[in-house]
TrEMBL record:
The family this protein is said to belong to: Belongs to the protein kinase superfamily. RIO-type Ser/Thr kinase family.
Gene3D superfamilies: Phosphorylase Kinase, domain 1, Transferase(Phosphotransferase) domain 1
Catalytic activity: L-threonyl-[protein] + ATP = O-phospho-L-threonyl-[protein] + ADP + H(+); L-seryl-[protein] + ATP = O-phospho-L-seryl-[protein] + ADP + H(+)
Protein's UniProt keywords contain Transferase: yes
Source organism (scientific name): Candidatus Nanohalobium constans
SMART domains in the cross-refs: RIO
Class of this enzyme: transferase
EC numbers for this chain: 2.7.11.1
Annotated GO MF terms: ATP binding; metal ion binding; protein serine kinase activity; protein serine/threonine kinase activity
Key words of the record: ATP-binding, Kinase, Magnesium, Metal-binding, Nucleotide-binding, Serine/threonine-protein kinase, Transferase
Record-given protein name: non-specific serine/threonine protein kinase
Amino acid sequence: MKDSNRDFQERWKEESRRMFDSSEAKKSFENVFDHDTSMALLKLKDRDVIQKMYGTIEAGKESVVFLADSPKGERLIVKIYMNQAGGFRDMYQYLRGDKRFRGVKKDRKSVIKEWCKKEFKNLKKASKVLECPNPIAFNENILVMSFIGEDFSPYPKLKDVEIDNPEAGFKRVLDDIRRLWQEEKLVHGDLSEYNILLDSEGELYFIDFAQGLHTSHPEAENFLRRDIENVANFFRKQGGDIDVEKSFESVLEG
């Protein structure tokens, strides 16, 4: 075991020198993540998924998001769920009621691994009916997806964009919510102006699908209502006249 660990440390020292764009990027990774995460990252490199890692672009209590490049020079997002995430018990509650993830073990590492897999699967479904990051690969607690932005900058979040016609804007978001629910049997589960991006042409992108639920989940309709309320509240502040109950019913009815 000691020899194996020594071999890994030697390889990590060599590979990370090539993989990280700067010493700051490497330090930001190593200050947050553990041995298992480093091994998972190397495996993704061996699979020719990741070539270069840049610094963090967003950090939360459960995950840290890095900018990266593929071997072909395509810009990527590398989302790493922390193995010491404090909210893993809440994650388990989301998983337990989803028929796609029955039998998940309750220990922290198993829950976080399934959580990562869950977001990958949710993105696969969502990408069929709306604009969102394209899921590329996952390994253990690391999810790799396409970058939504230009150069090194993500597109702005909806919360940071001036809205000319709030009612029309709400309708566009609601149409995506409806397609997701009716066609892919999925609800985002955590939708708000903080995880909708807008490009310069006005195209909307949904991000952060980790909390997405199958419509058969016992809490699915409650989360659907909350998504609609969150988005409605944002557009109301922009001056929109929006009926949440009517909007909720329109999604259920299709």
